[in-house]
Write a structure and sequence with these properties.
- This protein is α/β, with parallel strands linked by helices.
- It has 14 helices and 15 strands.
- The protein has three domains: 6-73 and 86-174, 3-Layer(aba) Sandwich (Rossmann fold), CATH 3.40.50.620; 189-362, Argininosuccinate synthetase, chain A, domain 2, CATH 3.90.1260; 381-408, no CATH class.
- 43% of the residues lie in helices and 20% in strands.
- The protein has a five-stranded parallel beta sheet, with helices on both faces. The protein has a four-stranded antiparallel beta sheet with strand order 6-7-11-10. Strands 9-8-12-13 form a four-stranded antiparallel beta sheet, covered by helices on one side.
- The radius of gyration is 25 Å and the shape is elongated.
Length: 412
């Protein structure tokens, strides 16, 4: 008797992976599904995904909670780097694919699979992210990608499933939605071009600015060496009783979304060379990065901030572009860790109708407090230098500009 080949499918229960599961089963595979929770599962959804996998014919289903690992290995460095791709996009689900692919490989090795599969298309970058990790960790495993290889449309996948009696919701048919701890990405007809904006019913949990409360909410975010350790109201009430970093981020996603924060549409070049546009919701990351950057202004020197911005952006771009295993990434992380030695303190922020407004910050390593103790008060004066010394500094500082001006106008 011939033994069926076994394949592990990264399974979300969405359209692409639902199609893949049925197609694999009909092709004679034993399909093991692996749902890697990187923050995209809400209460009861894990069981719903499992039920969907069983309905479609999976022989086994695995749920792996990878939220803490995602935060520790990916999110913490994205915050330390203040990374926003093209200055706007917190890389949402793209940065999570690293952990998801690793966990799928772990399941595949555990169950003795012959192959692994994912539901990525060939038009974006996710298929590269998955393949890069799988090839690095388990090159012996075959990678099977029906959506990419057959260049299927969402309409074709929908017809395939409905033709076999499986239900496909209209929203799933219309939009590709990937939700995770970092944020949610939304792709659909409106994002295929550069002019249209996503309609209200495409967004998953954030409110529009018009629908956000008229009164904002103040939070105090406390960091220890660049890591957020608490989020409280001004009277000290914690935003969440769970003190895990990822739980704080999840709570900020919920609260920020209620106040119209986090929506955006990112457009930029992908690693495969095309220009892509995608909607996103990422209130928690935007809040944390805004607060973290404000604290860094208080405790880091200008040179530290400038150098960190350059290296942090390069680190984030390489992470986004599936270069996690390049040795230089270890060097970047070592630098980022070192840069956070004094990034400890509390930041006050106001969340109000789509805006994140820093209200104040404090730290035992405050450069502003150190200057004040030394007698330097901006706009008022200093006991560290005299008026004559200030005049001399201004004179010397202006010399390079004066020389350059004279060289550019030799006739004068």
């Amino acid at each position: 008797m011939t033994t069926k080949r076994k394949i592990v499918l990264a399974f979300s229960g969405g359209l692409d992976t639902s199609y893949a599961l049925v197609a694999f089963r009909e092709a004679g595979w034993d399909v093991v599904t692996a749902n890697i929770d990187t923050g995209g599962l809400h209460s009861g959804e894990g069981e719903a995904v499992k039920a969907r996998a069983e309905e479609l014919g999976a022989v086994e289903h695995h749920i792996v909670d990878a939220r803490a690992e995602l935060y520790d290995r990916v999110i913490t460095y994205a915050i330390k780097a203040n990374y926003l791709r093209n200055g706007a996009y917190p890389s949402c689900v793209g940065a999570e694919r690293l952990i998801q692919a690793e966990k799928v490989v772990e399941v595949a090795l555990k169950v003795g699979a012959d192959a692994v599969a994912h539901g990525s298309t060939g038009a974006g970058a996710d298929h590269v992210r998955y393949d890069a990790v799988i090839r690095a960790l388990a090159p012996q495993l075959e990678i099977v990608t029906p959506i990419r290889d057959e260049r299927l449309t969402r309409e074709e996948e929908t017809d395939f499933l409905r033709g076999r009696g499986y239900e496909v919701s209209e929203k799933v048919k219309k939009y590709s939605i990937n939700e995770g701890l970092i944020g949610t990405s939304i792709g659909g007809e409106e994002t295929y071009g550069s002019w249209e904006y996503l309609p209200e019913d495409a967004w998953t949990y954030t409110r529009s600015i018009d629908a956000a409360p008229a009164t904002g909410v103040e939070l105090q975010l406390t960091f220890d060496k660049g890591q957020v350790v608490s989020a409280t109201t001004p009277d000290g009430k914690p935003l969440t009783e769970d003190t895990e970093n990822f739980a704080i981020l999840q709570a900020l996603n919920e609260l920020g979304g209620e106040h119209g924060i986090g929506r955006g549409i990112h457009m930029g070049s992908t690693m495969v060379g095309n220009l892509a546009r995608v909607g996103f919701e990422a209130p928690g990351m935007l809040i944390l990065i805004a607060a973290h950057r404000e604290l860094e202004k208080l405790v880091l020197s200008n040179r530290q901030q400038a150098t960190k911005a350059t290296l942090g952006n390069t680190y984030g771009d390489m992470l986004h572009e599936a270069m996690y295993f390049d040795p230089i990434m270890d060097d970047f992380r070592a630098f980022l860790d070192s840069s956070q030695t004094r990034v400890t303190g509390t930041v006050r922020v106001l969340l109000h109708k789509g805006n994140i407004v820093p209200l104040g910050s404090k730290s035992p390593y405050s450069l502003l407090d150190a200057a004040t103790r030394s007698g330097v008060v901006y706009g008022h004066g200093s006991s560290l230098w005299t008026g004559e010394q200030a005049r001399a500094f201004a004179h010397m500082y202006s010399v390079p500009g004066a020389i350059a001006r004279a060289a550019a106008n030799p006739a004068n």
